[in-house]
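Please predict the structure of the following assembly.
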Amino acid sequence: AQKVTQAQTEISVVEKEDVTLDCVYETRDTTYYLFWYKQPPSGELVFLIRRNSFDEQNEISGRYSWNFQKSTSSFNFTITASQVVDSAVYFCALSGLTSGGYQKVTFGIGTKLQVIP
Amino acid sequence: DGGITQSPKYLFRKEGQNVTLSCEQNLNHDAMYWYRQDPGQGLRLIYYSQIVNDFQKGDIAEGYSVSREKKESFPLTVTSAQKNPTAFYLCASSMASNYGYTFGSGTRLTVV
């Protein structure tokens, strides 16, 4: 069975601070994919990034960066110089094979980030 | 613009009634999904469909039913057998589950 743990349920930071959202996963698959999604107050989840299990290079996209470490089964997400618009719930997710041969995505419970002006 | 449309945005159901949530996509995606979101529990998979006329139960399928008669449409029926249906329901689609999902804006269902 696969599992995604987001231990931080809520985080508050002051605008312009850096913040890291943690994600730890469990899977028996050798090939899998990891994702991060953002859910603003409007409710719709927005795809941020996908990473496959063979690519451990860190990625940076503007103020966002992701640190994938297979050795610790972690896929952490850092926002640099946070802004009020970053306030949202962030979900980490893992895609792997089910026993029936279908791909299945498991989501963490989410981390609610509040950026205070 | 391509995307997923969920309707209605808010839905109220009396106990004992069945209700159907609509999900339509124009992204030409093969796979579609229904998730339920409750506070503190993240997203839980109800049903998913990889191709037309085929669908599989997710982790919490009891009390729900779906159909996939067209590629574009994946409606979810919440039946009276679902004992605690009040939740936020999200529909998603993807080229395949290894790709990122595109989500709809959700339907908030409340039992009155």
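The two ends of chain B are 36 Å apart (CA to CA). The mean pLDDT of chain B is 92.
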